[in-house]
Amino acid sequence: MNGRDRILTALQHKEPDRVPFDMGSSFVTGITKNAYLNLARYMGIDAGETVFCDTVQQLCEPGERILRQLEVDTRGLVPHVGRKNPDIEAVLGKGKTFTDEWGIKWTMPKDGLYFDLTGSPLSGDITEKDVENFPWPDSTLPSLFENLDEKAQRYYQEGYAVMLESFGSGIFEMSCRIRGYEQFYMDLAMNPSIACAIMDKFLEMKIKFYKAAAEKMGQYIQFVREGDDMGSQESLLISRKMYSDYLKPRHKTLFDAQKKIFSRPFYTFFHSDGAIYELIPDFIEIGADILNPVQVTDKGVTLERLKKEFGRELSFWGGGIDTQHVLPAASPAKVKEDVKKRIEALAPGGGFVFNTIHNIQDDVPPENIAAMHEALMEYGKYY
Description:
CATH topology: TIM Barrel
Helix content: 40-55%
Number of domains: 1
CATH architecture: Alpha-Beta Barrel
Number of strands: 13
Distance between the termini: 12 Å
Oligomer: single chain
């Protein structure tokens, strides 16, 4: 099987030759620059010039030599959005900063590792007219897709499953960023007409982006990475009723649009981390095919329970190893043990694509990434 066959078989809830593997195909399944460079040195591979696919999270585009040696089944396409290659300004004694195409300001502290949101252009007292008159970016610009169609065709012809990054983060997340988190939460509770006007703008731009992308390379794409983080470590960020009233119908519109616009086979990929167990039935109802990153932080929720309750309707993309405690801090032996346990829970009957629970961070030693991969190849075989 090639990578695409392997992944599509798994997503049909059948067992391929082995559990498919994704690393680096999106903003939520990637690896940070320093972790990547350490891994390349450990593998004896010259990483060459590293290129960021997301400057905010310091995620880099893994090179083909490493992806092939690790037998990664996916390849990612990142549109040329502002955070991919921004104009960064150094601030004397305070780090560095940039402003993206949304007018959102990002700042990396002097001794920091990542960029943090430090300015929201629609903060303060605004009206629906202000929302309408805001200089929203054009999600259909040809420059967004420059050279991506060639990459998409090559990846497809080489037998990989191809994932396209979306235009911006999720509707909820982008609304929080452009308005300011505290203010947008208040809008949802006290001024929902403003919140809905903002969310509808993001919904509109995303669908236009899908259509523009599909016209150029839709026949090569099997997934668009969509997501909205609806949970903290211990609870939902908003109530289930608020999700049902405001986010659920808009997420459904997104998924319906994707399935209408892109060529088959196509699967909706939805990223939502944290304690989101009680929303999973809603995600299924609105057409999510794949749930990522499969983070089990809800009290009483286990991977086995997720598989038993939702494994016939959802595929799980992620959940392969704990990236908060095990991957950065445990011994290689413990890493292998954790991978084995998770494969045993999620792999039977297909419906599982192996990836870490969110991105591999700078503090992960390369020995542990290697141990993770070895365990996947050892315990992830179906036949």
